[in-house]
C-alpha cells in the first residue's frame, strides 16, 4: 500500500461506530459458539473465515441440535448468497482493481461494512479500494476479538444451550421483519413456515427446512415475475403517454400558433 493511502486513523474514525456496535453482539456470539463446543481458537478461526453474525448464530444453533454437516453447509450457502448481490453493486467502484485484490476485498466483506463503503464510494470521490479494505479489516478485528472474548466468558459462566434456539429465532425474526416490503413477501414467508413444519414432520429430518425454503422462494419468484410481466405493458404505455404530453407542453408558442 502506498504511503499516501495509509490514512488509517481517518478510516478508523469512520469505521469506529460500526466496530463499537459489534462488541455486544460479538460477545453473545462467542458465548453461544462456546456452548456449541467451539474453543477460543476455533471461535477466532470461524469469525475470520465466515465473518457473518447470522451465519455464526446459525452454526451455533444447528450444531447444538446435532444437525448433519451437509445441512449446515446448505443453509449457510443459501443464507450467504446475498453477498453476490452486494458485491455486484460495488463492482463499478472497483473495476480498475486487479482480481487478486477483489478476492482479498470480498473475503472480509459483510452487510455492515458494505453499507459504509457503498455510502463512501457514492458520496466521496477520493474514497478508494484500499480505504474500503481498511474498513473491512477494522470491523473484522473488532468482531473476531469480541467473539474470542465471548468464548472466554463462556468458560467462566454457565450458559443454557437451550437459549441458542430462542436467540436464533429472534435474530431471523428480525431479519424477516426487515425484509417485509409487500403482501407477497408476507405470503412467501407464511408458505415457507407451513412447508417447513410439514416437511420436517413428513421427512423426519430438518432437511425439510432447506427444501421448504427453496420451494417457497422459487414460487415467490414465479409469482413476482408473472406480476411484473403483466404490469410492464401498462407501465410502459403510461410512461410513453406522459412523455408525449410533456413534449407537447414544451413546444414553442409559435409552433402551436401555426397549428391554430
Walk me through the topology.
Blueprint: H1 8-35, H2 40-50, H3 53-64, H4 69-80, H5 82-90, H6 99-106, H7 111-123, H8 129-156, H9 163-179, H10 183-203, H11 207-249, H12 253-259
Helix pairs in contact: 1-3, 1-8, 2-8, 3-4, 3-9, 5-7, 7-8, 10-11
Molecular structure report:
It is a single chain. The chain is mainly α and 260 residues long. It has a domain at 2-169. Helix content is 80%, strand content 0%. It is built from twelve helices and no strands. It has helices spanning 8-35, 40-50, 53-64, 69-80, 82-90, 99-106, 111-123, 129-156, 163-179, 183-203, 207-249, 253-259. It is globular. 22% of the residues are buried. Mean pLDDT is 79; it is low at 231-260.
The separation of the N and C termini measures 70 Å
Structural class: mainly alpha
Q: What is the radius of gyration?
A: 24 Å
Beta-strand percentage? under 5%
Helix proportion range: over 70%
Q: What is this structure, in a nutshell?
A:
The chain is mainly α and about 260 residues long. The chain is about 80% helix and about 0% strand.
What labels describe this entry?
mainly alpha; 0% strand; globular; single chain; 260 residues; 12 helices
